[in-house]
Amino acid sequence: KTDAGLYTCDIGTDVAKSKVSVQEKPTEVTKQLEDKTSAVGQDISLSCELSKPNVSIRWYKDGKAIRKSQKYDLHQEGTRAILIIHDSTIKDS
User: Fold this and answer.
1) Among 32, 74, 34, 31, CA closest to 56
2) DSSP 3
3) Are 83 and 60 in contact (CB under 8 A)?
4) How far apart are CA 30 and CA 51, in angstroms?
5) What integer pLDDT is reported at residue 2 of this predicted model?
6) What is the CA 59 to chain-centroid distance, rounded?
7) For 28, which of 4, 13, 49, 54 is 20 to 30 Å away at the CA?
8) pTM for this model (two decimals)
9) How many other CB atoms are there within 10 angstroms of residue 32's CB atom?
10) Residue 47 CA to its chain's centroid (Å)
11) Each residue of 74-83: pLDDT tens digit?
């Protein structure tokens, strides 16, 4: 049930009306990504916290979309978005 709708205050001789709409708050990043330094060959884990769980997330490297693969593992745990870069190389910098 929603609180949005037309509300009326009726005093018999006069009426006051109000149209109410309720909008969901946008999702925000509540904890930013941190810079990481790693030795070549190590897995690197990046994560950020969001204000809501189950949000559609896209990861990018240098403006190019990252997809789940042998190289990249992308997942969410509640409000946490996680990217794991497997077997890091200099090219991952």
Assistant:
1) 74
2) S
3) no
4) 6
5) 85
6) 11
7) 4
8) 0.75
9) 8
10) 11
11) 999 999 999 9
Strand ranges (E), 11-79: 15-20, 29-31, 44-50, 59-61, 64-66, 72-77
1 pLDDT band (50/70/90 cuts)?
low
Neighbouring-strand partners of residue 80: 49, 77
Q: Give the HSE-up count for residue 54: Cα atoms under 13 Å, Cβ half-sphere.
A: 0
Q: How many CB atoms lie within 10 A of CB 49?
A: 14
CA dihedral 48, 53, 58, 63 (to 10 degrees): -30
Contact 31, 24 (CB under 8 A): no
Tokens of 31: 């904890």
HSE-CB of 62 using CA atoms within 13 angstroms: 3
C-alpha span between 43 and 70 (Å, rounded): 12
